[in-house]
């Protein structure tokens, strides 16, 4: 257990915060610090074909140790942490034999991690929990995933009696700013399928995510002196209000869960002559997703028809752009890749928690790039903030899941 703790701490104490405003990859030079360390460490534990490319993607191979043919599989994690909360000077605290009570993260600042607010903590009573000191995030997202992959590879190298096919691993930069898959060389990786080790609590197994689009809608108005405006003025802010009020009021993030999709207004700025509304569209169901985009167009057309004569052109101009799609479409034709992960968990006494992701993962992008890629738990909780924590036992279980998936994939049929 100490080995896995030491490894995890050696990663989280390296600041790798990414930056959405940077055009380079990696987005921050400091991500190289961990990328280079990982490449060295992979060589040291005996991995082969260890490469680090000009964008800091680290890849390595664990060669097959069986004679028969086995599909090449992969495991993927990201080494950046979110820019939403500071990841500099992480000082992890280790709480052995967690007693089920409050954990004081920072006495001076009176920051407490409490199961009365974070009920999930109670399922880890008696376990060893790693927390922050209340001033930074922890970085279990996704350095727990990296710890698990490296430890599983090391374990299989040290235990050649465990039979497995060729395994490829990749650690990526900039996942948190949505670019982890951008420069991922799927062909070089050469796996038939892979798993991101980037989920949260023990048991999580995900292969469905949102279809996602964003819309920027511009409203045009005509400004006239308000005293003499009758029949002349068009107030673009009121057009925007009219538009938003025609969207289904109950289909918003705060009123939906599970497979329920939504429209979400994320920004408005306006004056009489011009208003812009930014909104995002999410739905797991491809048909409903397309219907949502049609709805945007229908509302647009209706308002435009109403003002056509007065304005002499379109008052509503929508620009809709797709971001990513539900990986289910790419995973369902190869459902055995989910079933293997499920079987691995069950054989290890872990109850698989299969649920749709209300967001996206790098795996969804990778799935559409030709690498079907479900997501497996990495073990952490409360990502992207000071209350982030990870039970060491969950990381150990994730290591076992990786090894078991490797074994099951290599089983002779
Ligand atoms: Zn992550």
Automatic annotation (TrEMBL):
<dbReference type="InterPro" id="IPR001261">
    <property type="entry name" value="ArgE/DapE_CS"/>
</dbReference>
<dbReference type="InterPro" id="IPR010161">
    <property type="entry name" value="Peptidase_M20B"/>
</dbReference>
<dbReference type="Pfam" id="PF07687">
    <property type="entry name" value="M20_dimer"/>
</dbReference>
<feature type="binding site">
    <location>
        <position position="141"/>
    </location>
    <ligand>
        <name>Zn(2+) 2</name>
    </ligand>
</feature>
<keyword id="KW-0479">Metal-binding</keyword>
<dbReference type="InterPro" id="IPR002933">
    <property type="entry name" value="Peptidase_M20"/>
</dbReference>
<dbReference type="Pfam" id="PF01546">
    <property type="entry name" value="Peptidase_M20"/>
</dbReference>
<comment type="similarity">
    <text>Belongs to the peptidase M20B family.</text>
</comment>
<dbReference type="GO" id="GO:0045148">
    <property type="term" value="F:tripeptide aminopeptidase activity"/>
</dbReference>
<keyword id="KW-0378">Hydrolase</keyword>
<feature type="binding site">
    <location>
        <position position="78"/>
    </location>
    <ligand>
        <name>Zn(2+) 1</name>
    </ligand>
</feature>
<dbReference type="InterPro" id="IPR036264">
    <property type="entry name" value="Bact_exopeptidase_dim_dom"/>
</dbReference>
<keyword id="KW-0862">Zinc</keyword>
<feature type="binding site">
    <location>
        <position position="198"/>
    </location>
    <ligand>
        <name>Zn(2+) 1</name>
    </ligand>
</feature>
<keyword id="KW-0482">Metalloprotease</keyword>
<protein>
    <recommendedName>
        <fullName>Peptidase T</fullName>
        <ecNumber>3.4.11.4</ecNumber>
    </recommendedName>
</protein>
<keyword id="KW-0645">Protease</keyword>
<feature type="domain" description="Peptidase M20 dimerisation">
    <location>
        <begin position="207"/>
        <end position="308"/>
    </location>
</feature>
<keyword id="KW-0031">Aminopeptidase</keyword>
<comment type="function">
    <text>Cleaves the N-terminal amino acid of tripeptides.</text>
</comment>
<feature type="active site">
    <location>
        <position position="80"/>
    </location>
</feature>
<feature type="active site" description="Proton acceptor">
    <location>
        <position position="175"/>
    </location>
</feature>
<keyword id="KW-0963">Cytoplasm</keyword>
<feature type="binding site">
    <location>
        <position position="384"/>
    </location>
    <ligand>
        <name>Zn(2+) 2</name>
    </ligand>
</feature>
<feature type="binding site">
    <location>
        <position position="176"/>
    </location>
    <ligand>
        <name>Zn(2+) 2</name>
    </ligand>
</feature>
<feature type="binding site">
    <location>
        <position position="141"/>
    </location>
    <ligand>
        <name>Zn(2+) 1</name>
    </ligand>
</feature>
<dbReference type="InterPro" id="IPR011650">
    <property type="entry name" value="Peptidase_M20_dimer"/>
</dbReference>
């Amino acid at each position: 257990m100490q080995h896995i703790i030491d490894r995890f701490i050696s990663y989280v104490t390296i600041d790798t915060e990414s930056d959405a405003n940077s055009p380079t990859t990696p987005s921050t030079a400091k991500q190289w610090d961990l990328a280079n360390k990982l490449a060295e460490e992979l060589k040291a534990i005996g991995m082969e074909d260890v490469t680090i490319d000009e964008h800091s993607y680290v890849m390595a191979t664990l060669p097959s140790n069986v004679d028969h043919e086995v599909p090449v599989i992969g495991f993927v994690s990201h080494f950046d942490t979110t820019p939403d909360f500071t990841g500099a000077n992480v000082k992890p605290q280790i709480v052995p034999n967690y007693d089920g009570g409050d954990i004081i993260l920072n006495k001076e600042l009176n920051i407490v991690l409490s199961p009365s607010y974070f009920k999930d903590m109670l399922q880890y009573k008696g376990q060893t929990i790693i927390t922050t000191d209340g001033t930074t995030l922890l970085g279990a997202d996704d350095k727990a995933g990296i710890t698990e992959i490296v430890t599983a590879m090391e374990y299989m190298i040290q235990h050649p009696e465990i039979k497995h096919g060729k395994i490829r691993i990749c650690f990526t930069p900039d996942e948190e700013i949505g670019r982890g898959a951008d420069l991922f060389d799927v062909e070089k990786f050469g796996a038939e399928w892979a798993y991101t080790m980037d989920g949260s609590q023990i048991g999580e197994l995900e292969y469905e995510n949102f279809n996602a689009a964003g819309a920027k809608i511009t409203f045009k108005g005509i400004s006239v002196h308000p005293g003499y405006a009758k029949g002349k003025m068009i107030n673009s802010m009121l057009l925007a209000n009219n538009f938003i009020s025609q969207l289904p009021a109950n289909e918003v993030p705060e009123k939906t869960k599970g497979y329920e999709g939504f429209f979400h207004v994320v920004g408005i700025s306006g004056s009489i002559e011009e208003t812009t509304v930014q909104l995002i569209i999410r739905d797991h169901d491809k048909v409903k997703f397309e219907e949502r985009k049609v709805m945007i167009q229908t509302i647009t057309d209706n308002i435009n028809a109403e003002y056509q004569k007065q304005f002499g052109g379109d008052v509503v101009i929508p620009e809709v752009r797709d971001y990513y799609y539900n990986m289910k479409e790419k995973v369902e034709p190869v459902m055995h890749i989910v079933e293997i992960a499920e079987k691995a968990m069950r054989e290890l006494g872990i109850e698989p928690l299969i649920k749709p992701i209300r967001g996206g993962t790098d795996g969804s992008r990778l799935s559409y790039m030709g690498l079907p890629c479900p997501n497996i738990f990495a073990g952490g909780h409360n990502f992207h903030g000071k209350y982030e924590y990870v039970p060491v036992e969950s990381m150990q279980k994730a290591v076992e899941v990786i090894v078991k998936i490797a074994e099951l994939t290599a089983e002779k049929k």
